[in-house]
Amino acid sequence: MKVAVAGCCHGALDKMYETLELLQRRHNVWPDLLLCCGDFQAVRNEADLRCMAVPAKYRHMQTFYRYYSGEKKAPVLTVFIGGNHEASNHLQELPYGGWVAPNIYYLGYAGVVRFRGVRIGGISGIFKSHDYRKGHFECPPYNQQTIRSAYHVRNIEVFKLKQLKHPIDIFMSHDWPRSIYHYGNKKQLLKMKSFFRQEVESNTLGSPAASELLQHLKPTYWFSAHLHVKFAAFMQHQTNSKEELPKATKFLALDKCLPHRDFLQIIDVEHDPSAGGSLEYDAEWIAVLKATNSLINVTQSSWNMPENNGLHAKWDYSVTEEAIKEVLEELNHNLTIPCNFTLTAACYDPSKPQKQVKPVHTINPQTTEFCAQFGLTDINDRIQQAKEESSGRGEYEEEEEEMDSTGSAEEPSDYNTDNSGLSSINPDEIMLDDEGGDEDLSTCSVDPSPDHPPDFSASFSDIRIMPDSMAVSSDDATDSNNEEVEKSGLSKQAEEKSLNERPLKRIGGDENGNSGVKKIKRRNQAIYAAEDDDKTE
Fold first, then answer.
1. Residues 76-99: pLDDT tens digits?
2. Contact present, 132 and 157 (Cβ < 8 Å)
3. Of 87, 169, 354, 366, which is the most buried if we count CB atoms within 10 A?
4. Rounded distance, CA 62 to CA 14, Å?
5. Which residues 6+ apart lie within 8 Å of 402 measured at CB?
């Protein structure tokens, strides 16, 4: 089975699908499935734009709304996770996953599905330690704090995924697993993104939560995006016993969706020829959701997941084969995900702009149906109840993003660092507080014109088709191209060293002695700018 993997889409669905059509014309290859690793930007209307964590001047409609309205349909089944630049109010409607448009499926805060026998999992958002132990309490209209915390990974999602026992074929995260750069060509990475050096050398770049999942799940493939650079790695996992067979993960990070950027990859994945062609629920994942339903928290209070420390009566929520069998029997062994997409918001109409429309908290019928079918808590319904109770006591007051906010206060976390996966200081959050700056976020500002479509045959001059054996070049290779890397392993000592987490070091200024704020602006420009990306590094 051929699987296409894309990096940050940034709402440019037309570009992404047109690139696939170009691939078919040039190489006679068409994927069975398209995976997108976050920053999908499923923006339906102007209210959704107000819920996207970018400065107002970079909020542009892009092309998703055409697929939402039914004007267009995705030509290939598309499965995606959320990133840190999303219409959070839209994705929040589907905490357990669901269709955002016909043939386009969101995995939810965390999720596992199957397609043609291939087991695909993912976790949405980016890691920030001060929100990691909180519940999903946010709801629109957001303020400057919650518009960002809404996309921060929570410990309950990681805990649920760690209950899985059966092998995962493909896993997606938006930010990279911490330490993964030690298993690929670091020299080439730092040549392309020199400002990652301190984080790489101090082993603080990336998400510790994703790293924990990588070591636990040991998927065959792991795909990420976020850093807007292509990078491959090969991680050989340690076995827990002599009887356990060795496992390895092929990691690939994708670039952003822009002309002249290698943002799309095709891989061959072993599949079950007898399996149907529909997207399916994963029985073990449904069973885990049922087992962990009592752990759902919709408050800002920080809390730890159950563990074997003498404080919890139960800490193992993994499921038995009998529980999995019960799920199959509930579904009459028909795991096909129903095509029950429903419009829950008005679609953008270019002839009738609605710039003053405010976002509202919506209960999505897909989520209602899913929760009713499996006996789960509808997180949004619980949030609504909590909000109504607080409002009745005079404790709740709606505030939109224009209010001043200094962000979340630091709190203890399961991890000793506060890292978004981008840098030791999260550039996108600083940018949100400094909307008057001159930074270029052109990945969000590109607004294609239907009357003047881009010339993709000229733009995408090199589309990669990767064989099943994704490999990386050794860390000592200086002349290799990171896009065509060769397999190599690191020494056991280097692997052990890479897994040790060190305290995060804040960077106060750049190499020229400038202030930390100015350096953050340069990083944003280097990461997000389209045309000037290579010039700034």
1. 999 999 999 999 999 999 999 999
2. no
3. 87
4. 9
5. 144
